[in-house]
Amino acid sequence: xxxxxxxxxxxxxxxxxxxxxxxxxxxxxxxxVNVYNDAASTNIVGTATTxxxxxxxxxxxxxxxxxxxxxITARQQYTGSDPSxxxxxxxxxxxxxxxxxxxxxxxxxxxIFVSGFCTCMDSILVDGLIPGATLTVEMIAGSPPVTxxxxxxxxxxxxxxxxxxxxxxxxxxxxxxxxxxIGALKSPVTxxxxxxxxxxxxxxxxxxxxxxxxxxTAIGVSDxxxxxxxxxxxxxxxxxxTNPWSSYTLDDMIPLVVGPLTAQQYFTRxxxxxxxxxxxxxVVKQPPKFPKVSYAPCAxxxxxxxxxxxxxxxxxxxxxxxxxxxxxxxxxxxxGVSGGxxxxxxxxxxxPTDAVGAVTLQVSVTLCDNPLPSPGYTSVPVVNPPGPxxxxxxxxxxxxxxxxxxxxxxNPGSVIQVFSGxxxxxxxxxxxxxxxxxxxxxxxxxxxxESIFASQIGCNATGQSAHLVVLAIPxxxxxxxxxxxxxxxxxxxxxxxxxxxxVVLFVDGAPRMGVDSIAAETGPxxxxxxxxxxxxxxxLPALAPGQSLTADxxxxxxxxxxxxxxxxxxxxxxPVPAPGAGPGEPGGGLGSNNNYFMYSPTASGCANLIxxxxxxxxxxxMAWVSTGGPNQCTGQSPTSLTNGFGMQLNCxxxxxxxxxxxxxxxxxxxxxLTAAINTWPLTxxxxxxxxxxxxxxxxxxxxxxxxxxxxxxLSINLGNDxxxxxxxxxxxxxxxxxxxxxxxIPSLLSSNGQPATDIAPIVGFTxxxxxxxxxxxxxxxxxxxxxxxxxxxxxxxTVTNAEPTTCAEATVFTAETATTSYGVLPAxxxxxxTQTFAASSSTPLIRRLGESLLLRK
Length: 857
Fold this sequence. Notes:
The protein has 857 residues and is an all-beta fold. The longest helix is centred in the last third of the chain and has 7 residues, at 745-751. The chain is globular and about 90 Å long.
């Protein structure tokens, strides 16, 4: 079967009447790229050639006039001779989704600073620009204030764009401001994100995307000074760039070559042109990673979203199916990769009309001459969804100057694009929905009064969202870093953020990382006015005990930043040490049946814990693989091993209580989510709710498999009587309560012939993601998320690594185990606490040492 032409390239917008170049992606190396401005894609307005060894994306100069409304597309023609690139020399099809030429906005958007500052910087990165405009950046410093030009009417050709600063001294605490103009049109003046700080000492850079592979064209770097320059040397090739933040991905590199790679920061400004220490990393040759498609593509969609990619790869898509004559595998073409995720245009008539039965796509990659190991591709089933499915919604509110919008309720597999007013005015590139809820980066910042909506196409889900009017910028509150924050934390939460604001995290007053709040939000806005909580990765160096974390936020000229002594920050704390390994103590680290303990110490002992609640938010599906034994329920049924796993809230009663130990559980038994109560006496191993077993309750309908899907939220909520006894419990799955009213435990005891007084307070608890029942151990192949612990404000929680032996009647523990692990927590009182969890089949099975409940005599 003959090789097909290359895959169609993708044109990224925006393209304005004043644009002088067009960004074209998914290009093979050694290819001729033509840009067109007509519906038939025959009238060439620009041509360029890709480098012979660098696939990915290039800017193609526009050499002929373009007019408003014309559809801009591109084609590529491979002219190389690499035998591993199996395409013909024919011209590819045109881009599937044209980018219309837009007029220059009647109101120019405010420029947005999107890189950090320091006194020794030589360049800045600015977004929100209109090609054809000029940019002016000024510095205000001194007393009385003096204004100095740093960038004077510099031409804008793309956005975002780096601008070289004038060679003038930038004093500490100088203020920057930027404005763009086209003729008489002028944008509002935008101030800098924060006053310019003194340039700190330079450190040896870190590379965060190891191993580095031969022919890659992007690497992740960290432990950097925003505003410093970075030099990468490899095999005589040199890449240089200015650091936008302390951590980022360096794109568009010369392809890496096997051998050493060095990284070094340096300053070209200030009196001392300082160079930092050099880091060295190996570049190796090995097969690339398997690509991923995280949703089921639809037969009537010509765009495919592929992730887990490496810049510099060649990606090939084939279609596999059967006809009445037998099986067929047909290549659809190949294209270049410029980033970790790509939207791939498939040929418009790619779906086989003669297919009988299932149709799958095979996605493969090569990196130079390194193919994937067997089977050599990722197989992706294609679906014909029933539908129709509803249109998505755009998350309100929208504010002037925001650079992203958040989409809710998209149909995975459909193509989503944001528009202003009508379908003639796109505001973003089209993207394939791989999940229902996600953010979309806009071409330029929003402007007050715009009418914004989202369009959804394909998968029998075509439709448009309701329109949202963009509001004027509100008053911005001071953002607050959410404590506690532990040393080594890989993410920091900041609350009280206005949707759309840019948020900058500071460590001891020095800028560390800036984010778009909508792209980084951890949930939808809430409260009045609606505010967000965002997650920010602090990167390297790792956060250390004693450091102070603060944050500011800005929307164009409106800012909220902490003044000295104003607050809004937290101090980084050291975590509670990992539990020990001796008899009667937890052993082997945090995981399985060995988690921290929580209690509320007082001067005389421990306070009763009131209204304890545990919430589990599943971010990566929790998938059961197998169960190991032995089953320790001798004489009880079932005696065979159980498919599934459990989530146990294990509680300690005070000294003298009849009920010494209390268990409140959510288990996935087979495919059924099930709740359980076990309350145990001081001696013996038979729970006392029922004479011969636990109380159980099904939590809704069965799941499709022994897996709790990503996005699920599960909760266990305890209630107390006036004496502090736990007298009720209620379970929640995705907000639905089971039962609809809390179970009254005294009534449950009475109905089963037990004394209604067999209840007790709790003075401490621990939580475990463990095996299903009867001391069994579970292997989970995947799973991650967040556990939130809370109690009444009257009983703030303290974390410890040992049972509350001075307060508790019993110090036994659960016997079930699993391949799970938990994040570290601080010791000081807090309410609530959040803890991460993870699970995989390769996680060591931690088994706590000491007396388990089921091994009692």
